[in-house]
Design goal:
heterotrimer; A alpha/beta (474); B alpha/beta (275); C mainly alpha (255); B: 275 residues; 2 domains; 6-stranded mixed sheet; 52% helix; C: mainly alpha; 3-stranded antiparallel sheet; elongated; disordered C terminus
Chain lengths: 474, 275, 255
């Protein structure tokens, strides 16, 4: 029977052979989707067993975390455990010393198997009860007994490698710049060339070109863009080939442009996507300027807030959410809801306390775009591209809310108090970007951006994948 | 008394030699058979990072032998905990916390506490001596097992106990399957007494073996603690009368002090054993 | 304060902004603008929101010289105080006051128009530059600094600038140099030039009579900095031509 099926397998070890316990403990291997939970000795508490599962998943369990993160009931402790087990793809949970667990603890273990769709291997080191199914309150047809622990654990499969976005270049670190041009798109690259030395310019220009290329790719693959461009074609062919271009006439009434870009969500996802791999705010600004240039080459005007360096939002006031950052968050915050709240603060650049004050919808099943009131422009919602590393935290939070029957399923963090989220962020020890000042606008930079189709693309029509920019001259 | 205060009172590092509880001034630790065996056994246990149990009635030198052996084998790696009444796992945690001299306050959550202890016990090899082990119940033994079974801790555990210790540990399958070796401490036979006592204290160095045999048969009974007490009384008696030499009368005087009850009847029974 | 409500209404129509959207963003309805401004109801704060929504410069909205009593005096006094006490502030001025760029831009624009206080003089070089000079008794050579508003340095083209710009770019890219050019009115060239989008073209081409009679006679070409930004021109001060327009191809177009 395949793993992940809610099966309860009992390993009966009446002689309490230390080798079996040793093998059970040695079988702990999260990379192969199985973990071993070594129950805390001297307690019959189901809450502590739930916390033991969290500890086996790498969470730091202290008196403070269980209290401050609302993990003081068996329901919440096991819900947190189930959420993490599901997003981590764990298929087998091995529990030695199961004979010492209290009946309620054994029942919670049974529920964990069905809730998290995994197999529980319980090692019973004493005389067998009359009915295993009764001892664990587990469905009879999902219980089997054996003495062969190694046979049960054979066939553990490794986790699939983490998917990377196809074609995404590794983000280059940016050396500390002498100064960052504050110009708009028209002057940014030239000013950078004038003010920075060759090494710094090359590093900054790499991000500029990244943004330009990303914009070209995004528009090139966007159906709305092609639809809009097709509407321009008839107007362009009406001009006689030898007629001088008349700007005044071009600006007269009845012209088809500018056409407002209506896919606001898509635009915000694209812009916040530029921030996902950006190492520092200066890199993000360069990427945005590059994206503006790339879009203009395609006949699209991208407008962003004037003073990006002082703006808030992804890539400017948050931090890049990497695997390392999410591991650090998970370790400090065993409650998935708190972990996700801090991750959202990091990727949106919002204040941690604001995360609790604004509706943040669960991540849709097949999407990496977070929709939230956080940082929205003029009472609208904002869309944020979620880094791959942060997705499991958000999904775990949604699972946790469902398992604990959260009354506000549409908003992941409605049950949290702003002070709690602040404390959670502090507990991770992460410095979440530039703090906000009173009076600064609360919208995120990308939510205040807009785009218009303003003309036909400057590219020739036809297939091709060449980067229009020349190789940088050293 | 809070667990923490109790632990601070009870847990200490391996004692200074002089505080081994029945050593007298000018007395020597004698390499009895039991002590030599104990040292050899502990060497094997340390090598195997195993569990062991040293048991026997009170006064047969278990704690002294273990302490003396560990002073030679693992002086800077030993932590000793002892409880005078039934402890709970949290008492063991606190005793180890202080015994390992960990900084700060003991954690409040058992998972956090165990993580801290296991991390400390994984840093380098240690011998954990649990004295008076007969007081502990199943949950305490399970706690010791929990520490020992952990993949990363590097410990050997020495249970030392009198009275029912053997029976208590033996009936736990979890311990029975993990105890690497058992050593029982018995009373010394006369032959060993005659070898050991003259070396133990100078007052016996030139004593007639028949006198030593009489003392053992009357008071010592092959029990080192009784011999220590007997020796102390002999020294006190001789100190009061400097012209007095060590003889049977002195021993009778000691017996009258140490036996209590109807000493005359016992003396008569001793002098005139029934056929 | 005289606000060009006709411009506001026309702009909303051009950008497809409904009355409701306008109200949600600014708190006033377009049709009520004139009434509100004459009664002094429209504050600097609202004006900046309108400018931001319509992607206009704040100064574009001002039709008449405002009467001082209708203004948000607190804003002006704050700026005067900040400038008088720390004349070397640059970007820090905005952060110090905690204002949006639009709000400060509008306030500075108003200061340019209004009589100034005795503590400083304001001078302008053109629409986009402000020079703040301390009065002589406080003047130190190292305190004299030239200020550029962020608009001049940072402004992006608005949609109508971009439409014109694309035409200029297309002509520059696809027409052989010297035979044809794009032509603009002097006002449009000034606008595009101030935003570093275009410059007067170095060409002997003359505008057709039809255009010249309507004042559209100045040949224009893309600003070199813009060409470099788009990867279509050389780095500043570098004469090497890095890119040939004939090599332009589309990226990831569907077949």
């Amino acid at each position: 029977m395949p793993p992940g099926d809610g099966m309860l397998t009992i390993i009966h070890d009446p002689e309490d052979d230390p080798q079996i316990t040793r093998d059970a403990l040695a079988a702990h291997n999260p990379e192969h989707r199985q973990i071993t939970v070594h129950p805390t000795a001297g307690t019959e508490s189901a809450i502590v067993l739930g916390a033991d599962v969290l500890a086996a998943l790498g969470c730091s369990i202290t008196q403070h975390t269980t209290r401050r993160q609302h993990l003081g009931t068996a329901l919440h402790a096991f819900a947190a455990a189930a959420a993490w087990l599901l997003v981590d793809g764990i298929e087998v949970v091995i529990v030695p010393r199961a004979h010492l667990l209290s009946p309620p603890a054994r029942h919670w273990l049974s529920r964990l198997a069905t809730t998290a769709h995994l197999r529980v291997v319980a090692v019973w080191h004493g005389p067998a009860p009359q009915h295993w199914a009764e001892a664990f309150r587990h469905p009879q047809h999902l219980v089997r007994e054996t003495e062969d622990l190694n046979g049960v654990l054979a066939g553990a499969r490794p986790r699939p490698p983490v998917a990377h976005s196809v074609g995404e270049p590794m983000p280059e670190a940016l050396p500390t710049l002498a100064e960052l041009p504050h110009s708009g798109m028209a002057r940014f690259r030239a000013e950078a060339y004038r003010t920075l030395d060759a090494t710094q310019f090359a590093a900054l220009d790499a991000h500029y070109r990244y943004g330009l290329h990303a914009a070209c790719q995004w528009l090139g693959g966007h159906e709305l863009y092609h639809t809009l461009v097709r509407t321009l074609a008839p107007a362009a062919t009406q001009r006689r080939p030898d007629e001088p271009v008349c700007l005044a006439r071009a600006l007269g009434r009845g012209r088809p442009v500018p056409l407002r870009w209506s896919d606001t969500a898509g635009l915000q996802a694209f812009l916040s996507g530029l921030a996902v791999t950006s190492p520092v705010p200066a890199a993000l600004i360069a990427r945005v300027r590059g994206a503006q240039a790339g879009m203009l080459l395609h006949g699209v005007l991208l407008q962003v807030p004037l003073d990006l360096a002082s703006a808030h939002g992804p890539g400017l006031t948050g931090i890049r959410v990497t695997e390392q950052i999410t591991q650090r968050i998970r370790r400090a915050l065993p409650n998935p809801r708190f972990a996700a709240a801090v991750a959202v603060a990091a990727l949106t650049g919002a204040r941690p306390s604001d995360v609790a004050l604004n509706a943040v919808a669960p991540l849709p099943r097949h999407s990496s775009d977070l929709v939230t009131e956080l940082g929205g422009w003029s009472a609208s919602k904002a869309v944020y591209r979620v880094p791959l590393a942060a997705e499991p935290l958000l999904r775990a939070a949604a699972i946790f809310c469902a398992l604990t029957r959260d009354p506000s399923p549409g908003s992941l963090f409605a049950a949290l108090h702003p002070d709690e989220v602040n404390a959670a962020a502090a507990a991770t020890g992460l410095s979440l970007g530039r703090p906000w000042s009173a009076g600064e606008p609360s919208h995120a930079w990308h939510a205040a951006s807009a785009a218009w189709l303003v003309g036909e693309p400057l590219h020739r029509t036809g297939p091709g994948t060449n980067d229009p920019l020349p190789v940088a001259v050293s | 008394m809070t667990p923490d205060a109790l632990a601070r009172e009870r847990a200490w590092l391996l004692d200074d030699e002089q505080s081994d509880h029945y050593l007298l001034p000018d007395a020597q630790i004698v390499a009895t058979t039991a002590l030599r065996t104990c040292k050899g056994n502990l060497q094997d246990v340390i090598e195997a990072e195993a569990m062991t149990c040293m048991y026997g009635d009170a006064g047969f030198g278990k704690s002294l032998a273990v302490n003396a052996a560990l002073r030679e084998l693992a002086a800077h790696h030993t932590v000793r905990v002892v409880f005078r009444s039934r402890p709970y796992p949290r008492d063991i945690r606190h005793a180890l916390f202080h015994g390992l001299a960990l900084p700060g306050q003991p954690p409040g959550h058992p998972i956090e506490f165990d993580r801290l202890l296991k991390a400390a016990l994984a840093e380098r090899f240690r011998v954990l001596v649990c004295d008076e082990a007969q007081w502990m119940a199943r949950d305490c033994f399970e706690y010791w097992r929990h520490l020992w079974d952990d993949r990363h801790t590097r410990i050997a555990i020495v249970f030392v106990g009198g009275g029912d210790c053997y029976r208590v540990l033996r009936r736990e399958p979890m311990l029975a399957s993990r105890i690497y070796l058992w050593q029982q401490f018995r009373k010394m036979e006369l032959e060993e007494v005659l070898c050991v006592v003259p070396v133990f204290h100078a007052v016996w160095a030139k004593a007639d073996p028949a006198l030593i045999a009489y003392a053992d048969q009357r008071i010592g009974h092959g029990n080192f603690r009784k011999w220590a007490r007997l020796t102390r009384h002999v020294l006190q008696g001789l100190a009061r009368d400097r012209d007095r030499e060590l003889d049977e009368k002195v021993l009778q005087w000691v017996a009258s002090r140490t036996e209590g009850g109807d000493a005359t009847r016992r003396r008569h029974a001793h002098d005139h054993p029934r056929p | 304060m005289g606000i060009d409500s006709r411009l506001v209404v026309e702009r909303c129509a051009q950008l497809g902004i409904t009355d409701k959207e306008f109200f949600d963003a600014t708190g006033v309805f377009p049709a009520e603008m004139e009434q509100d401004t004459q009664s002094g109801q429209v504050s600097v704060d609202v004006l900046t929101r309108i400018a931001e929504l319509l992607h206009l410069l704040p100064s574009d909205l001002i039709a008449d010289l405002p009467s001082r009593s209708a203004l948000d005096l607190a804003d002006l006094m704050l700026v005067e105080f900040a400038v008088a006490n720390a004349p070397h502030l640059h970007d820090g001025l905005r952060r110090l006051l905690g204002w949006t760029p639009y709000r400060l831009g509008l306030t500075l624009a108003l200061l340019r128009i209004l009589p100034t206080s005795a503590t400083h003089r304001l001078g302008t070089m053109d629409e986009w530059w402000l020079i703040l000079e301390p009065t002589e008794d406080r003047a130190h050579p190292h305190d004299r600094e030239e200020y550029a508003t962020w608009f001049a340095a940072r402004i992006a083209p608005d949609p109508f600038d971009a439409i014109a710009l694309l035409r200029v770019l297309r002509v520059w890219l696809w027409q052989p140099v010297g035979l044809h050019a794009a032509f603009a009115s002097p006002a449009l060239l000034e606008r595009l030039a101030s935003r570093h989008l275009a410059v007067a073209a170095d060409t002997r081409a003359r505008a057709p009579r039809m255009l010249a009679e309507n004042g559209v006679e100045v040949p224009v070409q893309p600003h070199p900095d813009l060409l470099f930004a788009l990867g279509l021109g050389e780095p500043p001060d570098d004469t090497r031509r890095l890119y040939d327009a004939s090599q332009l191809v589309a990226v990831n177009w569907p077949p």
